[in-house]
Amino acid sequence: MRSVLVWVIYGIVPAGPPVIRYLLNTAAFLGYLGLVTWLSVLWRDKIDSACVLITQWVEQVMVGKTTVLGGLRNSGTRMMNQYHGNGSLEREVMEMNVAKGSQV
Description:
The chain is mainly α and 104 residues long. The chain has four helices and no strands.
């Protein structure tokens, strides 16, 4: 992420008077912070919940609670619901965590 910030500050902002360059660097940095925040929210909402389901599936297969293919069918359906914006996946993961007694 730092390499993107360096590229933004030194690649986009033109050389010029120090005051103008300072203002442009500040604006570029604030834009960078907004981009990083947006990407982290996107990661949390879409990718992290899918990783939780995959990890839970691997755990269930390893302890013998489900078969490889049976668990894949159920997990795949839940992940597709999340991908299409159903929102049930996040709720289901939270319910599983509460049922296990862990804090979310």
